């Protein structure tokens, strides 16, 4: 056997093992970074009673986020979460637009800031538009437009940097 053949036989497995090790370390590091991308972030989830709200809360909790859970009925939200993590619970009803300044103040009192805002609420009506009374139109607009916009604008007025992400989830 020549010296070139022996060198090739020894170098190729070493290169393969080093390459595999590099990809393994890369995968481990990316996995660790993806788990910590929300660590210590403050996340507000509206309508935390829904199935999607519960799942979002669980995922963000596993990532290490600090949660503010909102719902129309605090007593209904409370039993779902006390044994897994201690979220802040806030009563939020987009039907009552007059209470929004108090709600915004209560949200800001929880942690003093907000990093991620998830609007997980919507109101749907399956009826012809011409048959709906004006009260229903107002209710739809309050729940699907004015409420979320008021909450986002109210927080941005109190936050100097306006540095948070907004996600809207509708069905």
Automatic annotation (TrEMBL):
One of its GO terms (biological process) is intracellular calcium ion homeostasis. Keywords: Membrane, NAD, NADP, Oxidoreductase, Signal, Transmembrane, Transmembrane helix. It comes from the Eukaryota. One of its GO terms (molecular function) is oxidoreductase activity, acting on the CH-OH group of donors, NAD or NADP as acceptor. The chain crosses the membrane at residues 12-33. The keyword NADP applies. The keyword NAD applies. It holds the Pfam family adh_short. Belongs to the short-chain dehydrogenases/reductases (SDR) family. PANTHER family: DEHYDROGENASE_REDUCTASE SDR FAMILY MEMBER 7C-B, PTHR44668. This is Dehydrogenase/reductase (SDR family) member 7Ca. The lineage of its organism: Eukaryota, Metazoa, Chordata, Craniata, Vertebrata.
